Amino acid sequence: MHNRLVLLSARLLDPVTGLFLPETALAVSGGRISALGDDRAIRALADSSTTVVDLKGAVVTPGLVDGHIHPVSGAELTHGLNLSGCTDLEQVRAALAGAVRELAPGAWLHGWGLDPNVFGDAPVETAPFDSVLDGVPALLLLFDAHSMLASHRALELAGVDGPRTFDQASAEVVCDAAGRPTGLLLEDAACELVERVAPQPTREERRDRLAAALRAMAAAGLTGGHAMDANGDSLAFYEELDAAGELPLRLRVAPWCQPGTDTDGVRELIEQQGRGGALWRTDGVKIFMDGTIDNGTAWLEHPDCHGESTDAFWPDPEVYTRIIGELHRAGVPTATHAIGDAAVRHVLDAVEKAQTDGGRGVRHRVEHIETVPDDTLSRFAELGVIASMQPTHCCDFTRADHTDNWSRRLGEERAGRAWRCRDLRDSGATVLLGSDWPIAPYPPLGVMAGARHRRPTRDLTQDPHGPEQALTALEALRGMTTDAAYAAGEEHEAGRIAVGHRADLTVLAADPLTTPATELPDVPVLITVLDGRPTHRDASV
Q1: What is the pLDDT of residue 22?
Q2: pLDDT tens string 20-57
Q3: In whole angstroms, what is the distance from residue 421 CA to residue 432 CA?
Q4: Could you read off the pLDDT of 274-291 as tens digits, one per residue?
Q5: Which end of the chain offers a freer environment for a tag, N or C, measured as fewer CB atoms within 10 Å?
Q6: Ramachandran angles phi, psi of 451, nearest 5°
């Protein structure tokens, strides 16, 4: 057996026990861990063609996996002006003015990461930027990627001059009392009205942006991701990168099922399952049950403070329930975006009905789960539904004093139930962690840190939002290793350092279990190993 890689003088961390294994070295062959032992025994397995690395006491964890990520759309959406660092309208105006000065005549301005909190109590609209964007076609994506602001010129070029009706129940061209668009577009169907008239990057440019984003993710310590879309050229890009040996993450891809999907569409989704290559495969279906709280398109059991967030994404939620049943009977796992309490409850009801009619055994998931009441918690464990959560959203888009847009919309009681990671885990649920990139940054150490400290990343001196919902260091590590493997049905071959398991590994300069949460994002990632080959290696090792 040829051992391609040998790692010596390592501290091998087991996320099940939270302890270091007694062995100090491992060998890799055929993309799998082929041996564990002491340095002398494992070194003896190397030959002249083996890559041997002395880690000098560095910590090796199973490869870190992001449980919710959008690689292709993220690579596209994060191209342009980054507005995520702006905290008030003046900063946004200044950033836009600088970008406008650099624009060629007639060119479009694209921005992303805009936080609705910059508007304070004022409406989210383009009016504060009219003087800067006069005559400039501009699209400014809000941080949730479910809404955007379009400048007057962009709306004019797209022929959008009033309200529209969409199949997506929560999609909307927001208009003032006179019926004139304010610039705010809610959900994909409305955003696409303007996006489709904007200049589009070439296919080669999109592929290159994706490849660069994936390389950066590997350098941050990620070995895998659960990709929550398969739109456009996504699968073709993965196939091309994989065939060329340029895919640095192992990807599990879930194509979308949107309102309006008929019987043939569901059958097509079922037939698509299992398509893939060496490092990617289609496994599961992504469905939306609602939108977001920040833009009033979540589905809540009681309206928000503006009287909004009262509708499901599906005009008839029972159609969603029927489709869940069809996919369940076909053995297809589903991942449903459900942010509001009514949305989460409906998903759980649908899964329960599917299990009653078709047995158990399929691992369904709920994505986001931003606010839920007490009576919902225990149902995740009872039904075996995985809670897929993104704690950095709580850290960076809400505040402990509830003065942020998300909390104000919900009111004190519901804002006090923000991202109940601790309660869900204590109730017996599997809590999978992810970033939802490009909504929040993808570095996995930052995601694990946020699950522990729940403080704003930009200012860690601020109070945590719901510190009683924090996870321990070990629980956070499990959320991106063993729990990620379980969610993918791969616990028999992934998520642990064991002979026969995949050689997907993350090597860190310090122990993630003893490093303070606020310092964890700064721990150097020394090596990332995917399928037995390094996809990132720091110059120091």
Answers
A1: 98
A2: 999 999 999 999 999 999 999 999 999 999 999 999 99
A3: 9
A4: 999 999 999 999 999 999
A5: N
A6: -65, -25
Tokens of 66: 């992001």
Give me the pLDDT at residue 386, please: 98
Candidates 523, 439, 440; CA nearest to 477 is 523
Q: List CB contacts of 64: < 8 A, sequence separation 6 or more.
A: 221, 222, 223, 224, 444, 480, 481, 506
Crossing angle for the helix pair 203-219 and 234-243, to the nearest 10 degrees: 60
1, pLDDT greater than 80: no
Pairing of strands 172-175, 181-186: antiparallel
Residue 425 host element (H or E): helix 421-426
Name, in order, each residue with C-beta under 8 angstroms of 173's C-beta and a sequence gap of 6 or more: 160, 162, 163, 164, 181, 185, 186, 190, 193
State the DSSP H helix or E strand holding residue 5, giving kind and residue range, or none if neither. Answer: strand 5-8
Is the pLDDT score of 79 beyond 90?
Answer: no
Pairing assessment for the beta strands 181-186 and 147-150 based on DSSP bridges: antiparallel
Task: Please give the backbone phi and psi of residue 28, each rounded to the nearest 5 degrees, phi first.
Answer: -125, 130
The single-letter code of the amino acid at 527 is I
Per DSSP, 104 falls in state P
Helix ranges restricted to H, 112-244: 152-158, 187-195, 203-219, 234-243
- Of the pLDDT bands very low, low, confident and very high (cuts 50, 70, 90), residue 338 is very high
CB atoms inside a 10 Å sphere around CB 421: 28
Torsion sign over Cα 37, 40, 46, 51: positive
Q: pTM for the whole thing?
A: 0.92
User: For the purposes of burial, counting CB atoms within 10 Å of the CB of 242, is it exposed (0-12), middle (13-18) or buried (19 or more)?
Assistant: middle
Beta-bridge mates of residue 515: none
* DSSP H or E segment with residue 250: strand 250-253
As a whole number of angstroms, the distance between CA 434 and CA 242 comes to: 23
- Reported for 265-273, long-range contacts at CB under 8 A and 24+ positions apart, including other chains, are 266/323, 266/326, 266/327, 269/327, 269/332, 270/326, 270/327, 270/330, 270/332, 273/330, 273/332
pLDDT of 473 higher than 90: yes
Question: Helix, strand, or coil here: 501?
Answer: coil
- What does the DSSP assignment read for 180-216? -EEEEEEHHHHHHHHHTTS----HHHHHHHHHHHHHH
Measured CA to CA, the distance from residue 504 to residue 507 in angstroms comes to 10
**The predicted structure's pLDDT at residue 335:** 98
Give the integer Cα–Cα distance in Å for 303 and 309: 6
| Residue pointed to by tokens 């006179």 | 178
How many CB atoms sit inside 10 A of residue 252's CB? 24
pLDDT of amino acid 521: 98
CA distance 372 to 470: 16
Confidence label for 167 from pLDDT (cuts 50, 70 and 90):
confident
Q: What is the pLDDT of residue 497?
A: 98
Phi, psi torsion values for 525, nearest 5 degrees? -90, 115
Residue 370 DSSP label: -
